[in-house]
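Bug #77: duplicate submission created two jobs. Keeping one. Sequence:
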Amino acid sequence: MTKNSRVPTPRSPLRDPGGAFEQRLSGKVSSGQKFLAVYVTAGLPDVKHFEPLVERVAAAGADIVEIGIPFSDPIMDGPVIQRASKRALESGVTPPWALESASRIASLCGSDVDLVVMTYSNLAFRMGFTSFSRELAAAGVGGVILADLPLEESELWENAAMEAGVAPVLLAAPNCSDERLARVASRSRGFVYGISLLGVTGARKTVSEMAKEIGERLKRVSDVPVGVGIGISSGSHAAEVAAHCDGVIVGSALVQRILDAEDPVAAIEAAESFVAELRGALS
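Kept job's structure:
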């Protein structure tokens, strides 16, 4: 098989067209825009200032805000997100608190930003996939990422999410075979999340060649927008990666700025400035 040949994308019975989140994102991509998704752990910089921070980040140019529901064993995440999750848990952030906050953010921001929840499968399993999906939909969340749920075990979750009208966003690792990559792309909704390197989340000094490769490979097999994330740490990184996909996802570099700020107001300003830098680079 040649490098540029297209792998036929199997049509999964789990997949159906539509969904406001996917439609909005696909419309932006079709018009030539690159989308920007940013991750913020729920409850940062503190529970009082989390919602204002998300509003300012959205106004600065984020198309998607991934709200991380903190989990005690975030196996996909590196030291920065682990530290953020620990702070959030110690401040009393729970899944119900995060979803109530998301609901208020969705009401305030409207269609200016799409909300995606990112967390781990144990939380969804404990609440029940159907109940969790319905809670997400009621909160105005358009998509959800369960970072540790493998494709072979996600069918029940995907069905429950789509039944509730929430897009299950699936992860595609850079060492996936062409056949598996096509399966992931065919079942992901909203967008498909290409992982730019092997390892946990965290800012990096340079862009991995895997970031470019996974973006191009997914573009050949996906009919939903392709985002690439993990390790993107600056505007120049974002622009470099976006040349090979439809958008970028930035998490640890943003969370690091929030954690390093002297106080909540400074954290909001730092987050807003960084997102504006990323948006400018993509534009």
